[in-house]
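=== RUN LOG ===
request id: a7f3
mode: sequence -> structure
chains: 1
length: 286
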Amino acid sequence: MSTVSTEVKIIGKTRCSLGETPVWCADSQSLLWVDILQQRLFRYWPEQNERTEIHPLPAATSAVLLTTQPETFLIVSQSGIQIYRYRTRRFTLRHPWPDVGTRPNEAAIAPDGALWFSSMDPTAVRAIGCWYRLSPETNVLQRLAAEQWVPNTLAWTTQGVWFADSLRHVIYHGVFRSDTLTITRRYPVRGIPDGSALTCDDQLFNARWGENCLVRYQISGDELHELGSVALPVAQPSSCTFGGATLSDLYITSAYDGLTAPGAADGALLKISTSLTGTPARRFPL
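=== RESULT ===
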């Protein structure tokens, strides 16, 4: 089995209340992620003396994703789905936010270029969240699933899509055909599954909120086999992605929100070196 270092690097001194959705931009060799609750966008260049920039965001934002235009990103926020031109800091509305009384959570670009994202109750008390798909060609928003509690994780393999409902403690495998998302397998898991990263050989690393670790799985078709876990110095890891020149560095976001006595690393961005190769972030066509 490919190696994952036991050494975890804590990057910088900034801490996120609710860090989420790390995305590696290969063009600029930089990592982007957000703090949902503090409405901030972070960008980190590891090969430029670890330079970091922070941009304010106008609303609760769960993801800043890549597009086919350089330095132009897709924003998923309570203000709607927006195009963000990084250098000028200008926002252009692509589609209004669909669910009053909810906030965005998970988001990623599918293999066909469509945006998939989820909504949830900001207090995580009611199962009023949904999964959505936004077509880049028609700009039509389609509801894929309702009655979600805390919808998380989006990872596509050749056999379908993997996603989770954190507070139901379940990871799902589904198939999207003829504009319909069909769940084919349900995997109850211990703890609270949050965001995930996928390797080229279909290993899934899942951030396990509240458990100080990532759980490592091997995907085979629609089967999920646990391989072990990776210990972390944070109580609430929230998501992860592969980055770096060879997509072998595993970056992990975390959160201190809800902790009565946060540790020194809680809310930090972390990095672990591996011998694995991650899947590159997809781009939304513009």
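=== NOTES ===
The CA atoms of residues 104 and 119 lie 4 Å apart.
The first strand starts at residue 4 and ends at 11.
=== END ===
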